[in-house]
Amino acid sequence: MSKFLRKTLTATAVAMALAATGAACAADAAPAAAAPAAHAAPAKPAVDQAAIDAKFKGDKKAEYSYMVGMDVGRGLTSIKDDIDVKVVVEALEAKIKGEPTKLSDAEWTSVRQEFVQKLQASQAAKAKEEAETNQKAGDAFLAKNKSMKGVKVTASGLQYEVIKQGTGSKPVKTDSVTVDYTGTKIDGTKFDSSIDRGQPAKFPLANVIPGWTEGLQLMPVGSEYKLFIPAKLAYGEHGPAPIGPDATLIFDVKLISIDKPAEAAKAEPGKPVIVPPAKH
To answer: Which helix (H) or strand (E) holds 186?
Structure first.
């Protein structure tokens, strides 16, 4: 999940000063559960160190300095419209050289608090606008989708379509299951897929979003369903960054198996992105 500011070792001089901003304004943080397990990325091609050195004519200090500048710049990208880079550099130089700064420590604290509050308000307004847009689009989509051939609607508002009906048992809420799935937004944007990761997901059925808990209990093992999940049965206002607040979601799901207790114990916590919405 993305953070408002990317804190790194080399960006400490800037990012540490705004650490509270990052924590307070990470409106797109994931719900209170582990994110999908990281998968090993393919090895990157070896970097030609000689080519890098040539760009700086062997000046390692310049090479390292440029790297730090890139890192600091990357960390400040999210607030670039709220700051003057020249003034940032002026303050950096003063602190690094140990020279007097225009702001005292008390003044710095006051200005910092004001800035954080401004960013929080901006993030809140943006999140509210996005949530209203998503909710409106989702409602319109579901209103049209429920009349599509093959689509069924449950009492909760969950919509589903049977792509392939299996012949196995149906899971109950206390079961753990193994599934393959792909999740998309209503505009077709894919945000998660066990298929892309190359490994089916295992999880307790009670530990996912309500739309999944309900939808999977409709499916015999071997079934493939398409679930159309209203925001209230998904993440609601706490949708993580790839999804957004109050978004209606679509999942193509294949129920592979209902796991026995010994097998369920091997499930990786929070394997799929479809964890429960955060409770506040």
So the answer is: none
Query: Beta partners for 257?
Result: 178
pTM for the structure as a whole: 0.65
| Domain boundaries of the chain, sorted by first residue | 12-124, 141-264
Q: What are phi and psi for residue 7, nearest 5 degrees?
A: -90, 125
Nearest CA among 126, 207, 214 for reference residue 172: 214
Q: What's the Cα-to-Cα distance from 148 to each of 142, 159, 178, 252, 263, rounded to whole Å? A: 10, 11, 29, 17, 38
Pair 4, 249: CB distance under 8 Å: no
Q: Which two tokens stand for residue 266?
A: 């091997």
The DSSP-derived string for 221-279 is TT-EEEEEE-GGGTTGGG--TTT-TT--EEEEEEEEEEEPHHHHTTSPTT-SS-PPPPP
Q: Which residue has the higher pLDDT, 17 or 195?
A: 195
- Would you say 272 and 203 are in contact if contact means Cβ atoms under 8 Å apart? yes
**What's the fold here for domain 141-264?**
Chitinase A; domain 3 (3.10.50)
Between CA 78 and CA 88 the distance in angstroms is: 15
pLDDT in tens, 241-266: 889 999 999 999 999 999 876 554 55
The answer to whether 166 and 225 are in contact (CB under 8 A) is: no
Smallest CA-to-CA distance from 208 within 197, 188, 192, 196 is with 192
CA torsion through residues 131, 137, 143, 148, sign: negative
Tokens of 230: 């209203």
